[in-house]
Amino acid sequence: MAALTKLSIVTPSSVKFEGQAEIVVAPGSAGDFGALAQHAPMLTTMRTGVLRATVVDAAAGEDAKATRRIEFAVDGGFVEVLPDKVIVLTDVALKPEEIDLAAVRAEHKRALDALAQKRGADDARERHEVAWSEARIEVTHKPMA
Description:
The protein is α+β, with helices and mostly antiparallel strands.
């Protein structure tokens, strides 16, 4: 079994996940990055995207540690990586089952239309809305349609 690191995903309202992970892949501001146990210390910002981790299911018992993949749509934030833990601080972290796909698809279409209207002039807000809707759709593993 691979070495493990403690993973905590924290929002202002709750601790969304806490457990042991083999690897954490986060949408860093300068690009996606992975963190394993014994990673060099690092503090960085996150962009809007999908946070992924392979975590150990503690319920499987000591002899048969099963792993599973978890994913959260995150709307920016910070990641602190230490040799023994990864702490994710974000305003929003949504699991696939927390996402209303039909509403997000409608939001995505509105965001794309608004972005097209701007034509590059001061379009940061519209680009963010497109990225946030795409992250939520991606985490559901359903087509954009």
